[in-house]
Amino acid sequence: MYIIQCYAPTNDSNDDIKDQFYERLQSIIEKCPRKDLTILMGGLNVKVGIDNIGYEDIMGRHGLGERNGNEGRFANLCAFNKLVIGGTIFPHKHIHKDTWISSDHTTENQIDHICINKKF
Fold first, then answer.
1. Distance between CA 43 and CA 99 in Å, rounded?
2. What value does the CA radius of gyration of the chain take, rounded to a whole number of Å?
3. How far apart, in whole angstroms, are the C-alpha atoms of residue 31 and residue 71?
4. Burial of 82 (0-12, 13-18, 19+ CB in 10 A)
5. Contact, 78 vs 88, CB < 8 A?
6. Cα distances (angstroms) measured from residue 68 to each of 3, 33, 46, 48
7. What is the pLDDT of residues 33-66, one digit of tens each?
8. Which residues contact 21 (CB under 8 A, 6 or more apart)?
9. What is the rounded distance in angstroms from the CA atom of residue 41 to the CA atom of residue 6?
10. What element of type H or E holds 107?
């Protein structure tokens, strides 16, 4: 079993920093044998939302909110490596979906994720 814990750059970071992060993350994932269980988890700062068009193999329609600018890199990484975005597959109560809440409690986001390879 391989567990990869990471913290991704925020949506406000410049594209070069985000690209470097995802390139490095890809190089780490590639070192994990495909036959073994691989779990990717952490503060990925990605809002995947409920729209899974084009990504039906790796995510369901049970995310929270709408996508942000980071979802493309993350979804492509997951699709390329056959990693399923866990919190989107099954329905959950709304209060169990949010992983970040603003200090004034007006904004809720699901930006932390656990992904597992499709083998399991």
1. 9
2. 14
3. 23
4. middle
5. no
6. 25, 31, 7, 7
7. 989 999 999 999 888 888 888 888 988 877 777 7
8. 8, 9
9. 6
10. none
What residue type is assigned to position 38 of the chain?
T
- Residue among 30, 22, 89 nearest 58 (CA): 89
Dihedrals φ, ψ of 64, to 5°? -120, 130
Q: What are 63-77's pLDDT values in tens digits?
A: 777 767 667 899 999
Report all structural domains of the chain as residue ranges with CATH numbers, in order of start. Answer: 2-117 (3.60.10.10)
Q: What is the pLDDT of residues 63-114, one digit of tens each?
A: 777 767 667 899 999 999 999 998 888 777 776 677 777 789 887 777 788 8
Show the tokens assigned to 75. 């979804």
The pLDDT assigned to 105 comes to 84
Label residues 36-52 b or e (16+ Cβ within 10 Å = b): eebbbebebbbbbbeeb
State phi, psi for 112 to the nearest 5 degrees: -105, 135
